[in-house]
Amino acid sequence: TMLDQHRKSDARLASGRAGHGLGCKARGRRDVADFRKKVQEATGIDPAGPNRRFMAQCYGEPDFRWRVENWGLHPDNCRVIGMAYSDLILAPPYTRADIAPLFQGIDILARKNVLVSITWHYGGIFARQPRAGDRLRRIFRPDGGERSAEDARFIRDLIEGIDAEGANTILCLHSTHRYDQRFFNEMLNLASRSSSIAVRLKDRDLDNLADLVASDAMASNLSSFITYKYLQGQPTIHLCPARGLRSIYEAEHRHGRLGARKAGGREAIWMNEPEDNGGLTAYTFDETLEGIRRGLREPDCCAERAAAWVGKRIFRPDGNSCSSFAEALRELCDRPL
């Protein structure tokens, strides 16, 4: 999302805002409403109509249609630019050997590495449906309920299974404030007892590109992070909720507190259906581990599917996406008031 800083009254207004990757989950209706409100406050113009001070970056034509049809943005405000980050993924500024010291406790050069990214939106790894209104700390507390204990066991067993395959686990979690401290302590305790796991925290370990470069395969419960792996053509395993449990209970910030809200009704839950991905799909622990085993043994098993997914949804990832992004920014800044 890009905004032209013409309204000088707000000194905090930035000229650009970085967003998420291109994932499965749709933005909630409250998020979209807040987004449109902020654009109007910043530019003085509702983005539902033409807005010369605002431009929404779109990864490709499907993303363009989604922003128009589901977000209610005017088509003139949306521009298909592609994914600037793809330039770095396709041509990283460092090698795996260069970044090895970042992954303390494991040797990323001596073994293969599996990136496991657990997002926080679903109330559990396989979305086992918390009660609406549950505090987020209860959703993820490993000793605070059957669901959380199952998730903790899932991670422990997965790490053991990956280790048995002769590979390390790079466990990527969201920012520390997203979870109860006891959950983090459990993950850190796992890392302290094993030489095959490194825990990466979003607000501490800021370079996610390093995680992509260091890893040979990736498993995630539908984090948008996993779509970046498609550009490398490496194996990906998507941990999906069963079809009968497709409601999303996503965490939200309201009045300074974290809670869980059920998305539903006329609200779009999925931007892309969970099975519409660039790799393998798993609904259980056994399927997850089997997918990882296959990915480690067959490094090209998802390459064709990943390339097809990228070709359909991301505009021209040819190493020049940053130039296209810069050109769009210049055009926005040159527009007359």
Provide an overview of this structure.
With 337 residues, this protein is of the alpha/beta class. 35% of the residues lie in helices and 15% in strands. It is built from twelve helices and eleven strands. The protein has helices at residues 29-43, 61-69, 86-90, 96-99, 136-140, 146-164, 181-192, 208-214, 226-230, 285-297, 303-313, 321-334; strands at 2-3, 54-58, 78-80, 112-117, 167-173, 197-201, 217-220, 236-239, 249-254, 257-262, 280-282. The strands form three sheets. It has a six-stranded parallel beta sheet, with helices on both faces. Strand 7, helix 9 and strand 8 form a beta-alpha-beta unit. The radius of gyration is 20 Å and the shape is globular. The two termini are 19 Å apart. The model is unreliable at 4-18 and 128-145 (pLDDT under 50).
Write the layout of secondary structure elements.
Layout: E1 2-3, H1 29-43, E2 54-58, H2 61-69, E3 78-80, H3 86-90, H4 96-99, E4 112-117, H5 136-140, H6 146-164, E5 167-173, H7 181-192, E6 197-201, H8 208-214, E7 217-220, H9 226-230, E8 236-239, E9 249-254, E10 257-262, E11 280-282, H10 285-297, H11 303-313, H12 321-334
Parallel strand pairs: 2-3, 4-5, 4-7, 5-6, 7-8, 8-11
Antiparallel strand pairs: 1-2, 9-10
Work out the number of β strands: 11
Radius of gyration: 20 Å
Number of helices: 12
- The SS-based structural class is alpha/beta
- End-to-end separation in angstroms reads 19 Å
Biggest pleated-sheet summary? 6 strands, parallel
Unreliable residue runs: 4-18, 128-145
Order of helices and strands: EHEHEHHEHHEHEHEHEEEEHHH
Binned, the helix content reads 25-40%
Proportion of β residues? Answer: 15-25%
Average of the residue pLDDT scores: 82
Principal-axes geometry comes out as globular
Widest beta sheet: strand line-up = 6-5-4-7-8-11
